[in-house]
Every structure is written in structure tokens, then in C-alpha cells.
Amino acid sequence: MPYSYAINDSVLLQFQGPQGREIPKQRNVYTVTARLPIEADGRTRYRIKCEAEKVERVVTEEQISQLG
Q: Which CATH architecture has domain 10-66?
């Protein structure tokens, strides 16, 4: 399964609430900082960073969307 996003791509993070429900929250633009190895479950994972935060997040491809 190929990666959909490249390093330095800008993406939006879809915050998830209980039981996977999307919760309305201010959407920040994140930058993909790394493509992580594909895990045993077959999902692609990325490390992303937002200028407004001091931490990086690890997310699956389903949790992010293309900016635009």
C-alpha cells in the first residue's frame, strides 16, 4: 500500500471523540514530518507537527485529510 502523503505535505487532522465520533474542534494545519513503517494491521502511519503545538503526533492515514 503506497503512502498518500509526502514529507512536508500540509494536512488537516480530524479529531476523534468516543467510539470514533468526530468532534468539532478548531482545525489546525499540520505538516507531515515522517512516514512511519507500515504496521502489521496494514495501515500507513505518519508523524505530524503543528506550529502551534510543541509535540508531534503519530496518526493513521484515516485521521488526516488533504489541505484544500
A: Roll (2.30)
